[in-house]
Amino acid sequence: MKKLLVMVVSFMFVGCAMLPEYPSICETAPPDSFICVKANELGVKVEDMDLLISIAILRMDKSAAKLALKFYDAVERFLTKDILYRELIDFVRNEAKLTGPEVLIISRYLPHLYSTDYISDFDKMLIAAHIDHQRALLQ
Fold this sequence. Notes:
Elements: H1 2-18, H2 34-42, H3 46-58, H4 62-78, H5 85-96, H6 101-106, H7 110-113, H8 121-138
Helix pairs in contact: 3-8, 4-5, 4-8
């Protein structure tokens, strides 16, 4: 049984390693995309961060899903204004009441995004696309 398990895990890793690498949306981003610049500096893809949140969302129960949808509505309303990246970070922290283990997951990225620059239109589009993707997973 142990040998079978080792073989299955090995095939999964080999299979994942052989999957084609898809280009990131940041490869075509304008230079004012602060999110893409920071993702590149951190050595991550924006799509990978989206995937991490997608996995967490799929594990939510129905009551948590309803709260998530309300949260996404609030973020979308907030993004209609001209705001700084740090204002969005503060809003998300307060609105989502991030205090538990989830902070450990994202805290390594937040300081890099805590900027006094205004959120660019491209980055607003990235955030809106992310919200649309997460909302689709919840419904």
